[in-house]
Each structure stands twice: as C-alpha cells, then as structure tokens.
Amino acid sequence: MEKLRIVFMGTPEFAVGILDTLLNNNYNIVGVITAADKPAGRGQKIKYSAVKEYALQKNLTLLQPTNLKDELFLTELKALNANLQIVVAFRMLPEVVWKIPKLGTFNLHASLLPNYRGAAPINWSIINGDTKTGVTTFFIDDKIDTGAMILSSEIEILPNENAGQLHNRLMGLGSETVLSTLNLIESENLNTIIQNDNPDIKTAYKLNKENCKIDWSKTGEEIYNHIRGLSPYPAAWCYLSDNNSEWNIKIYEAKLILENHDFVIGSLVCTKKEMKIAIKNGFIQILRLQFPGKKIMNTAELLNGISFSGTAKAY
User: What residues form DSSP beta bridges with 239?
Assistant: First the structure.
C-alpha cells in the first residue's frame, strides 16, 4: 500500500493531543486545517486556535479557511496531495472536502456512537450520569457523526471526575484509537459497522446559557452531575440573591451531601468557611465558584470578603 499522506483538521486542545501523537509516531502530516483567527476577550485581541499554535510550533503547513467550499481553499487542499484526512473536533465538512482523499476522511468523536452525536459529548455523558463513555472513529458522510464506524474504545467515568478530567483521559484513549485505526487502514483490514438509529440515542446538544443554568428543584445527584459535567468550561451557573443584591455566579466544584433538613429549596446556608445550598434531598456544598468580575476562588476565600444574610437564596 502507498505511504499515508495525511491532512489533519481540528481546532481545540483535544485535537492537539491527537496531532501530537501522529507526529510522534512518524506519520506524514502534509497539512493542517484549523479555524480562522478571531478576536476574543475584553481587549478583543486576535486569538489563535490551540491547533494553530501547535502547527506553527512544529512548522506544519497550515490552512485557515473561512469558507470550506471556497475555490482557492479547495485548490490549496488538493495541492497537498493527501490520500487520507483525519478530523478531530473541527466542523461539519461539505462533501466536496471529505471526498477528496482516495482513502477517505475519518473523524474521532469523544463518545460511543451512536450516542452523543453533536457538539458536547464529554459534558453530556457526565451531566446525564453515565458510568461509561469512550471514543469512536468513523468515516465521515453527509450528516453529523452518523458515518460508518471503524473502531470504538470504552472508558469508565469516575464518580467524582469533571468534564476537564474526563477530556484529558479521552484524549489519551483517542490517540491510541486513532493509531489503531491507521494500522487497520495501512494493513487494508477495515471492517466498518453501520450506525443503527434508535429512539433511545442520547444527543450531545450544543451548550448554551439556558442548558448550563442549574435547576435547584432537581435531585442532588442531577445537580451534582450538572456542575461537574460543565467544569471547568463553560461552567454551571445560577442566580444568587441577598438583600436587594443579585449576582450571576458560576460554580466550578461542589460536593453532594445527602441528608434530611427543613430548609426551603435554594436557601443559602453559610458558616464562616462553608456555603451550602439546600436541595430536596440534602445540600450542594460549594467548593469553588466565581462572582461577576472576580477570579475563580474557593469558598473560604470568598467568605473572607463577603457575608450573607439568613435570607440569601439561589435560583
């Protein structure tokens, strides 16, 4: 079989881990495609994607199209003469792009497909209280995350880990699975599996302000999973009110305490060093949080500079 000439497409840190593994295993990366630069933060400074930073560091050929159907981009892409494309956390590709290489275009997705197709599979697997997840490689087709599967690798979700910790473990598992997928392609030993749709498939909806908001009427387990499933990014949030003041706070780390109590749901219960919010079957103890305009801090740090009345409430 001819030697692989790979174009790699990706944007965030998760994709960098896979690209680094490919280079460390001496695969020939003839080009890297990543998102266009965009302004970010208060100063609106131009921000490079994590993949661009890495590609520049390694002197890799880099393309940053704003339109994947643009004729100039397609000409440049074809000129790289790749026979395989690998996609990790990029964007939906038009057919005119994914059909270019002779050996196809495969994607690494951070879930056990067909579950959690979509933008945020790692977050939703924790939010939904799953005990296992994994990664899947599949050949891209004309829909999102629906193509013929090549390999799946499973991993246990630990009871108290957050999305960031699971992300890092899945990046390692994803690297191994991409290497195994390449071995199958190189040995011409591929046996793909068609994904079967069924009504019970879970979806990895795009995260937004609405679905990141904490619903304090839910069970402690559901709220705890919601917080760790959104930590460290984009973070679960809620409103906290006390005396005529209201804050939009983000909660990054919490502890679930199951016990009976007589507090109204949402009541804030404080000592000098602890903050707890009453829920139907106990309390959510807040360990790390962020107030508007402040840095992320632990609860003891916050309570050094602020005190709450007995009527403070989260909602």
Answer: 248
